[in-house]
Design the sequence.
C-alpha cells in the first residue's frame, strides 16, 4: 500500500479513512503490513501503556520515545503524533514543541486539541513552517477536568453551533483533518458535510469520513472495559491470561 500524503488524504473524504493508535515497535511492524491509512501515536499512551489516570500526565519526552519506536516499526505509514498537555500553552511554546516532535520522530503530522484563537494562530504558524496539523474538537481529554468529565458534545443547539464554528475555524487555519471525539452523531454528520477536509470520528457515529480507535481498546489488551463506543473484536487480555496460566501450570508438572 502506497504511503499517504496530505494531497491523497484530502482526496479521501467520504472514503472511510481507517486510523488506529499505536505505541510500540512490534505492533507498528504489524500495522505497517496492513491496509491501514494512518497511525496515531496518541497521548492515550498515558492511560493504556503507562497506567496514568489521565492524559494530562504525559510528557513530551514520553511522546517522543514512543513515537520514535512506532516510526521505526512502521516506516510506510502516515504517522501523526499528539502534542501533550502543557506543551502548546503559548504560540512560541507550541512551535518549539511541535518542531521537536516533528523533527525527532520523523512523523508526517502533529495533532493538537482545541480551537481557541491562540491555537488557531498556532496551527497557521505551524502549517506555514511546514508542519501539517490535525485538529481535535468535541471531547478533548487534556481538558477533561475543565470540561467536567467525559460526555457527548453537541447535544444542544448552542453547543452544536460552537462545534461547527470551531471546525470551520480549524479548516480555515490550515488543519488538514479534524478528529471529532464523542460528538453527537447528527452534529458530526453536519460538520462532515460542511467541511472540505476529512473528519475522523471516535464515538461520533458512522457518518464521518473516517474512524480512529485506540488499538488497546479494539483488541481489549487491558483489564478495564473499553469505552462504550468501542466494541472489542477480541479479548486478548483474557486470552493471554488463560494461555500463560496453562503454561505456568504445565511447567509445574
Sequence:
Amino acid at each position: 500500500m502506497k504511503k499517504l500524503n496530505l494531497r491523497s488524504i484530502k482526496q479521501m473524504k467520504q472514503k472511510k479513512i481507517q486510523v488506529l493508535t499505536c505505541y510500540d515497535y512490534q505492533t507498528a511492524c504489524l500495522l505497517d503490513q496492513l491496509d491501514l491509512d494512518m497511525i496515531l501515536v496518541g497521548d492515550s499512551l498515558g492511560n493504556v501503556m503507562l497506567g496514568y489516570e489521565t492524559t494530562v500526565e504525559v510528557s513530551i519526552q514520553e511522546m517522543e520515545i514512543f513515537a520514535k519506536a512506532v516510526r521505526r516499526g512502521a516506516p510506510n505509514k502516515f504517522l501523526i503524533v499528539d502534542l501533550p498537555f502543557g506543551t502548546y500553552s503559548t504560540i512560541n511554546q507550541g512551535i518549539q514543541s511541535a518542531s521537536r516532535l516533528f523533527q525527532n520522530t520523523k512523523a508526517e503530522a502533529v495533532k493538537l486539541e482545541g480551537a481557541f484563537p491562540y491555537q488557531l494562530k498556532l496551527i497557521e504558524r505551524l502549517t506555514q513552517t511546514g508542519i501539517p496539523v490535525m485538529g481535535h474538537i468535541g471531547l478533548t481529554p487534556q481538558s477533561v477536568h475543565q470540561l467536567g468529565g467525559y460526555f457527548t458534545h453537541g447535544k444542544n443547539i448552542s453547543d452544536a453551533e460552537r462545534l461547527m464554528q470551531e471546525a470551520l475555524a480549524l479548516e480555515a487555519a490550515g488543519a488538514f483533518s479534524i478528529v471529532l471525539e464523542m460528538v453527537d452523531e447528527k452534529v458530526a454528520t453536519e460538520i462532515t458535510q460542511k467541511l472540505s477536509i476529512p473528519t475522523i470520528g471516535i464515538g461520533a457515529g458512522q457518518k464521518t469520513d473516517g474512524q480512529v480507535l485506540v488499538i488497546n481498546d479494539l483488541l481489549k489488551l487491558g483489564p478495564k472495559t473499553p469505552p462504550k463506543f468501542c466494541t472489542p473484536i477480541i479479548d486478548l487480555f483474557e486470552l493471554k491470561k488463560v494461555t500463560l496460566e496453562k503454561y505456568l501450570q504445565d511447567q509445574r508438572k
User: Anything to note?
Assistant: Residues 157-173 form the longest helix (17 residues). The chain has eleven helices and eight strands.
